[in-house]
Amino acid sequence: MRLYQSEDALLAALRRGEERAFADLLDRYYGSMLRLAMTQVYNRAQAEEVVQEAWLGVIQGIDRFELRSSLRTWIFHILMNIARTRAQRERRSVPFSALEGAADQDSGPSVAPDRFFPDDHPRWPRHWAVPPRIWGPSPEERLVAKETQAVIEQAIAALPAMQHAVITLRDVHGLSTPEAAAVLGITEGHLRVLLHRARSKVRRALERYFGDPQP
């Protein structure tokens, strides 16, 4: 359970130097920071070093944080700046904005074409033939189930690096499109494309879990 329910309360405690506030912050963001760092350096040991350095930057810079962005956005900015510098120094990575490469350039559409009626359908051209459906009479209850959460987490973990980073920032941590694009160093349009692909893949994983029709 989080000790500080609002970011303002957490920030005030951080600036007072409360140890439990930094522990709370670490609990909130460590996992996501590690995953983001790994998309840049491709090595867990190096990623852990990047996260440790980023935490030092957060501790040393918290009094200078000017509230021009959310606290989490500021933290992710620090992380990605360190990760980019480390990647360039180690010569083990291309610039983050180019990481999509072959892995992120999906060769096919986000949704299989045979989920739609053909162009020459007499009544519903290009409309859903097998539409998505609401899973069960109580979607809220099913979506919070541990099993379902595990499916979502596994689907996100299997995404290509850029898609993983985008959906983590947007859907897990709730950054806005401009904030997430700035953190990742990509355009907002590019981010929207990656987010659409990532969400489509996660949805397909959920459809398989719930036994919905698959192409």
What would a concise description of this structure say?
The protein has 215 residues and is mainly α. Helices cover 62% and strands 0% of the residues. 26% of the residues are buried.
What attributes characterize this protein structure?
215 residues, mainly alpha, Rna Polymerase Sigma Factor, Chain: A, Arc Repressor Mutant, subunit A, 2 domains, globular
Describe the structure.
- The protein is an all-alpha fold and 215 residues long.
- It folds into two domains: 7-93, RNA polymerase sigma factor, region 2, helix turn helix motif (Rna Polymerase Sigma Factor, Chain: A, Orthogonal Bundle), CATH 1.10.1740.10; 97-210, Arc Repressor Mutant, subunit A, CATH 1.10.10.
- It has helices spanning 7-15, 19-41, 44-61, 71-90, 101-104, 139-143, 146-157, 161-172, 177-184, 188-210.
- It is globular.
- The model has no long low-confidence stretch (mean pLDDT 79).
